[in-house]
Structures are given as C-alpha cells and as structure tokens.
Amino acid sequence: MLVSAIIPCYNSQATIGRAITSLLTQTVAIDQIIVINDGSTDESLQVVQDLQQKHSSIIVIDQENNGVCAARNAGIEQAKGTYLLTLDADDYFEDTFVEKALKKFEEDDRYGAVMCGYVRVVNGKKILPYIPEEITFESCLLRNGAIACLLLKKEAVLKAGLYDLAMSGGHEDWDLNIRVLKLGYRYAIIPEVLFNYVDTVGSRSYTSMEQDLDLKMQLFHKYRDEYKKLHEYLFIEFSKEISRLQRQIIKIKRRKSFRVSEKIISQIDKIKSIFK
Prior knowledge:
Helix content: 40-55%
CATH architecture of the largest domain: Alpha-Beta Complex
Number of strands: 9
Largest sheet: 9 strands, mixed
Distance between the termini: 50 Å
Shape: globular
Oligomer: single chain
Strand content: 15-25%
Structural class: alpha/beta
CATH class of the largest domain: Alpha Beta
CATH superfamily of the largest domain: Spore Coat Polysaccharide Biosynthesis Protein SpsA, Chain A
Order of helices and strands: EHEHEHEEHEEHEHHEHHHH
C-alpha cells in the first residue's frame, strides 16, 4: 500500500521545505515525495536537493515552466503508489492525516478520495477552520468543497484522465474532483482540521474576484451538458448562488471602484440564459 506525494514547486524557496517536512513527519511513512521544480528562478531547487540528500524518499523532477497541471501529471507518471497525495508548495498537512486517510480507504472500496477539514493561514495566522460536508457529483459541480486536501486513489485519477492542462490557471483540483465523482467514486471525510491552506500574496491561492469568476465560468462551460441534465436541482442551487452574487454586487457598488461588478452581472446573465 504505497503512498506517493506530489508537490509542484515554482519559486517557493520560503515554503517548500515546510511542505516537504509535513510529509516526512507523517505518522505513516510516505514512500515517495515527488517534487516537480517547474522552472523556478529562485533557490527552490537547491532547498529541495538539500533535503533530498538526507531523505531517500524525495524524488526531484526538474523541468521548464509548464504550469501546475503539467507538473502534477509529470509527478503522477513517476508515482508508484496506490494512493496520491497532492498539495501546493506553500501548503502543509498535520502529521496524522495520511494514517487516518488510509484507515478510511479500508472502510469502503468505493472511496476514490479521502479529505479532511482545513484552516486558512493568512499572514501566519490560522483563521476560518472548515469541516467539509458530504460531497456528491451534483454538489461538486457547484462548489469545490475539497480543494487540495486529499488523498486520492491513483486508479481513480488515471481513469478520470489526470489534470486538464487548460485549468492551469486554477481550480484544477475542482475539475479533477468533478471527473472522479462522475465515475461513481465516493469521497470520505475525516471531520478534523488536518490541512493548512496558506494564502500568500503572489501565490495561486491568492486570486482576484475577477480571475476567480473567469475560472468558474471555464468550468461551467466545460460541464455545460452535465448542468443541463441536472436542471431542476441546479436551478434551485444556482438561484441561491445568483442571489448571493447579487447581494455581493450591491456591496461592491457602494465602493468607489466597482468595475468588476459589470463582469459579475454579465456572468450571471449567461447562467440565467441557459435555464430559460
């Protein structure tokens, strides 16, 4: 029962060591820690190589900058594990996650992934702890309740078709979760906060509202047929989401600058038109 961890790394010299250490200190050993240096121009590669000298489980792939999806796919190709653990170079796990996740997999063969609760880390402070609710294919089409805090069954990832290179701008985990769930796999939940999701200025997790909307619309168009098939359920849920966005627009309009509100309105109109 091998576990292979995969960490794409781009200019993360300040955090990559912490991410790797959180895997080295797991209560159940991770067999491979595959770090993909994706064309870093800082000292990230040197930091990883220094750790590699001390820990034989660390494998380094050094490549030109091809984006996070290509980096993760390169790591999966080298992975020998039955299970895949993926995270970004600025995130980190608590040391019991893998042990508890493996026990969950033993409970049901239908599990394609095990996730846990997470906490956001902003300027070094932990805020907004979150324990996810049950995730289904239908609910995942609407919201990404899992993010990156997952131990995935490699078999499920291969059947789903790896990471979509078109999603390198973000939400690639969400996209993969949708495809895994569509295959009929289930997601188990550990009701504990065992993952630290770090918001760092300049990192991929630190995106603007406008950029986030673009990525969500990209997903929406990709799964347009699925949304239509689930018309009744999604109409109710989208109505709730539209109401939330409309309240958000009102708040934005009260500010001096609200250019992004026009973009939000246009996206809402696109969604509404599909259900007419």
